[in-house]
Design brief:
By secondary structure, this protein is α/β, with parallel strands linked by helices. The chain has a single domain, classed as Rossmann fold. It has helices at about 5-20, 40-45, 60-70, 85-90, 105-110, 135-140, 160-165, 210-220, 220-230, and strands at about 55, 70-75, 100-105, 120-125, 145-155, 175-180, 185-190. It has a 7-stranded mixed β-sheet with strand order 3-2-1-4-5-7-6, with helices on both faces. Helix 6 (about 135-140) links the parallel strand 4 (about 120-125) and strand 5. Helix 1 runs antiparallel to helix 2 (about 40-45), helix 1 runs antiparallel to helix 3 (about 60-70) and helix 3 crosses helix 4 (about 85-90). The structure holds S-adenosylmethionine (SAM).
């Protein structure tokens, strides 16, 4: 392979790793790893370069790719047994682990301790998908993005992830929607620093539904609401 870290070389890694993914998640549909869409990996391949500072919650194909792309990469996930296959895969495929590090703690414990770290260029949120984990990952992880850096969310079709986008990020001028599919989305940060702030700094926040809307909603039986919600969130 061309030793020059070009975009083409990074895209070639995407193809190569997806053709034979690491066996990280035994419970994944194909028994190898839970993955996002190829277009997401290709987007990130174009977004980073050698030495980019990258952070992800969770581990898998994405981790191998960040290592292959020679990013200065930190993966935060709690299960040591998921680290070994990634390390083995890198060693077997000539991918250096020099700039790859793991923090083997749940992201909700690990990320707050990173406060004050050198800002990241890209943060990939794909760890625990139960509410409010994606929000915690965004608050602490994307709070460490440099101005102009990008946060990428996988599984935005899940309400636990999509809710944050719909109620906040997409209305906040300090975030620019870069690209999205029904499964993943990328958002550029136009501000910098920690994300904590007061309610009066968020005039764009959508108002809570009025009493009339809430009461009308309550009249719709759950048996209709649930399938409707699923439909809206796909
Ligand atoms: C969907 S998989 C990640 C897939 C990976 N990004 C890829 O492209 O192959 C979700 C990962 O999140 C990890 N995880 C679960 N709970 C977590 C938590 N509290 N903090 C960080 N990671 C967590 C799981 O162990 C799993 O490795």
């Amino acid at each position: 392979m061309d030793p020059t870290p070009t975009t083409e070389r990074r895209l070639a890694w995407v193809e190569r790793v997806l053709a034979a993914p690491p066996n990280v998640h035994a419970n994944a549909p194909d028994g190898t790893a839970w993955m996002t869409e190829e277009s997401c990996y290709r987007y990130m391949a174009r977004q980073v370069e050698e030495g980019s500072r990258t952070l992800e919650t969770g581990v898998g194909v994405s981790t191998v790719l960040f290592a292959a792309w020679e990013c200065d990469h930190l993966a935060v996930f709690p299960y040591a047994h998921e680290a070994t296959p990634v390390e083995n895969y890198c060693d077997e495929h000539g991918i250096s682990r020099r700039s790859l590090s793991f923090d083997l703690r749940p992201s909700e414990i690990a990320l707050p301790t990173l406060a004050g770290a050198t800002p990241f260029d890209l943060v990939f949120i794909d760890g625990c998908h139960g509410f409010p984990s994606p929000i915690i990952d965004w608050f602490y992880g994307a709070g460490l993005l440099r101005k102009g850096g990008v946060v990428v969310f996988d599984d935005i079709n899940l309400p636990q992830v999509g809710w944050l986008l719909r109620t906040f990020i997409e209305s906040d001028q300090r975030w620019e929607t870069v690209t999205r599919t029904s499964k993943w989305g990328a958002f550029r940060r136009l501000s910098e620093g920690p994300l904590g702030e007061e309610w009066f700094d968020q005039p764009f926040f959508p108002p809570a539904p009025t009493k009339v809307i809430r009461r009308t909603r309550d009249l719709v039986p759950l048996s209709i609401k649930r399938p409707l919600r699923r439909f809206v969130n796909t």
